[in-house]
């Protein structure tokens, strides 16, 4: 317990019992205040531009349209009906967003784990090669993800190489498409958030003690058993962080759905929020949708942390 | 047979994953040489014109410069604030620590649309004009949380005995910080700053909500996607990718050489 956390009533008692000199205690107390000073500027920024905006969003979601008001005109109210309206209109879009995000997260895990394992464990000790591959994981950010998504759109387009090949070997019917399908949207999500999956797993596997894997092999465990009984449990914190960092942005994304999907049956909730804000200028509806999305994701994350959480994360 | 599979499964799967990651970048690079004209959708022949004149299409370079400015300013602010928070949270115990913890983590658990929409609501409420400042503020918020998480891992892995040793040798707290703590933290801080800049540079959703008429590079591409993205955008995308690669690989090679020299001694 620190001196600052001590209640006032305990002070005298502590003075008698505390073997430390007063100088030490005041140093400790200064230390505590120092921590507060260090975090204060950042906390003020977060309070003003994260916590307060969320509250503003909440109050805006309850605004009402005045009778005879113009487009974009709203008055403060407690219009809980907004929530009922948007939930009944868009519950299926919410569901679809979460399903897409879930599939993309699982796919990113399946693709990202071997990447992370390759760099962190198989190439251990070969620092130059490790470094180059790590850079390749981050460098795509600099080529702009919208440009990359647009590139996928063209690669997967009907005239593109993938569709031509798939049609030739009859995996796709002669009039089959890849773009404007749910498949393309999920592929885009998987692709765009892959580094967010791979990097935390890499950071975790980097500290993996390979002696444990050898020990498992020496005790006649098959490589598969070793993987499931030793490697996977040890890398759980990395997988945990990676899945969260992939799922959360994927569930709210709309760029992939907008560029790679068609609007009718691949729409994601981000698209709806964006168009409610900017095209339809329905601020209360858009705010209500945003708030529901936030609460749903927080709830899912909390359940996930309760079920699989490790203390090591964060 | 089983052994062969066991040995090669990871390298092959991992290698293919890297190829998958790089396919669209290769595509962007190839099509930066396309004699495209207005729309860069199909191959019309090789040209170097786009590379010789990367600012040839309207607004490409302006939006790039905007993005770089936003990225630098937001990264500096987020890195300084985030590093302080990481130090404060790991090294000191004080009231409200758990509240502070929660406030840091929440932006990470909030999807970009919600962050963007809530900030827009706040700016509308305050009556602020959307532009450079509002974009920087919105980027600082999401970058800062990443900086805290990254630097914090580094702070926790520091050996406190090193600092104790410094103060035992009569170094003042300030001297201890700048001569011992900070140099040890630096790799983590640099990594956090790089990540922060990359994410700011590549952000579209939050920017789109809070930028008004101000254009950034991703926003420029998104807006022009409907009419056709000019090949110059591919040039800039490829050049930025190659530049990032070159900078980091050079620093890696230098660090590698230094380690080798040290090891040889």
UniProtKB/TrEMBL annotation, chain A:
Transmembrane segments: 36-58, 98-121, 128-147, 182-205, 226-248, 285-305
Main location: membrane
Membrane topology: Multi-pass membrane protein
Region (Disordered): 1-26
Every ABC transmembrane type-1 domain range: 94-304
Domain of life: Bacteria
Pfam families per UniProt: BPD_transp_1 (PF00528)
Bias-annotated ranges (Basic and acidic residues): 15-26
Keyword entries, A-Z: Cell membrane, Membrane, Transmembrane, Transmembrane helix, Transport
Family: Belongs to the binding-protein-dependent transport system permease family. CysTW subfamily.
Protein known as: ABC transporter permease
Natural source organism: Paeniglutamicibacter terrestris
UniProtKB/TrEMBL annotation, chain B:
Cell compartments where the protein resides: Cell membrane
Cited SUPFAM superfamilies: MetI-like
Nucleus as UniProt keyword: no
Pfam families xref list: BPD_transp_1 (PF00528)
Ranges annotated as spanning the membrane: 12-33, 68-90, 102-124, 130-151, 180-201, 235-256
Sorted UniProt keywords: Cell membrane, Membrane, Transmembrane, Transmembrane helix, Transport
Sequence ranges assigned to domain ABC transmembrane type-1 in this UniProt record: 64-254
Matching InterPro entries: Bact_Polyamine_Transport (IPR051789), MetI-like (IPR000515), MetI-like_sf (IPR035906)
Keyword Transmembrane helix included in the entry's annotation: yes
Topology of this chain in the membrane: Multi-pass membrane protein
Family named by the database record: Belongs to the binding-protein-dependent transport system permease family. CysTW subfamily.
Protein's recorded name: ABC transporter permease
UniProt lineage: Bacteria, Bacillati, Actinomycetota, Actinomycetes, Micrococcales
């Amino acid at each position: 317990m620190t001196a600052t956390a001590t209640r006032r009533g305990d002070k005298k008692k502590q003075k008698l019992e505390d073997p430390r000199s007063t100088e030490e205690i005041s140093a400790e107390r200064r230390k505590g205040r120092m921590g507060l000073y260090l975090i204060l500027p950042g906390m003020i920024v977060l309070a003003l531009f994260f916590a307060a905006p969320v509250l503003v969003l909440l109050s805006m979601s309850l605004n009402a349209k005045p009778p005879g008001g113009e487009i974009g005109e709203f008055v403060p109210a407690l219009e809980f009906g907004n929530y009922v309206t948007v939930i009944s209109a868009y519950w299926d879009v919410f569901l679809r967003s979460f399903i897409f995000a879930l599939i993309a997260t699982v796919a990113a895990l399946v693709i990202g784990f071997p990447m992370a394992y390759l760099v962190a464990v198989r190439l251990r000790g070969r620092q130059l090669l490790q470094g180059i591959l790590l850079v390749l994981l981050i460098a795509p950010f600099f080529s702009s993800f919208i440009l990359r998504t647009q590139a996928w759109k063209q690669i997967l387009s009907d005239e593109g190489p993938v569709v031509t090949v798939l049609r030739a070997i009859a995996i796709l019917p002669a009039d089959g498409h890849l773009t404007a399908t749910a498949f393309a949207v999920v592929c885009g999500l998987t692709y765009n958030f892959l580094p967010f999956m791979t990097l935390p797993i890499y950071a975790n596997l980097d500290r993996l003690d390979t002696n444990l894997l050898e020990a498992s092999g020496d005790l006649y465990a098959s490589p598969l058993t070793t993987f499931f009984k030793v490697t996977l449990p040890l890398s759980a914190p990395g997988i945990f962080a990676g899945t969260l960092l992939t799922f959360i942005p994927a569930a709210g994304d709309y760029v992939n759905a907008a560029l790679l999907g068609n609007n009718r049956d691949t729409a994601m909730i981000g698209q709806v929020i964006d168009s409610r804000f900017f095209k339809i200028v329905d601020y209360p509806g858009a705010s209500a949708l945003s708030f529901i999305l936030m609460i749903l994701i927080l709830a899912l994350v909390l359940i996930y942390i309760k079920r699989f959480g490790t203390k090591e994360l964060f | 047979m089983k052994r062969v599979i066991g040995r090669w499964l990871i390298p092959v799967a991992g290698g293919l994953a890297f190829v998958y990651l790089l396919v669209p970048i290769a595509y962007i690079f190839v099509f930066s040489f396309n004699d495209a004209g207005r729309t860069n959708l199909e191959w019309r022949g090789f040209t170097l014109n786009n590379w010789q004149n990367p600012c040839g299409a309207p607004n490409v370079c302006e939006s790039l410069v905007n993005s770089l400015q936003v990225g630098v300013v937001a990264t500096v602010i987020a890195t300084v604030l985030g590093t302080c928070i990481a130090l404060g949270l790991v090294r000191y115990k004080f009231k409200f620590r758990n509240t502070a913890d929660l406030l840091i983590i929440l932006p990470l658990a909030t999807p970009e649309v919600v962050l963007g929409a809530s900030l827009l609501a706040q700016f509308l409420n305050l009556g602020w004009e959307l532009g450079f400042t509002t974009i920087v503020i919105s980027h600082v918020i999401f970058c800062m949380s990443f900086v805290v998480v990254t630097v914090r891992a580094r702070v926790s892995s520091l050996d406190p005995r090193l600092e104790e040793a410094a103060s035992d040798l009569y170094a003042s707290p300030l001297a201890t910080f700048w001569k011992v703590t900070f140099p040890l933290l630096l790799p983590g801080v640099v990594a956090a700053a790089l990540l922060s800049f990359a994410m700011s540079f590549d952000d579209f959703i939050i920017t789109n909500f809070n930028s008004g008429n101000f254009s950034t590079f991703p926003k420029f591409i998104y807006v022009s996607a409907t009419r056709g993205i000019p090949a110059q955008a591919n040039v800039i995308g490829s050049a930025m990718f190659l530049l990032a690669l070159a900078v980091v690989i050079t620093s890696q090679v230098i660090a590698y050489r230094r380690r080798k020299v040290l090891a040889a001694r």
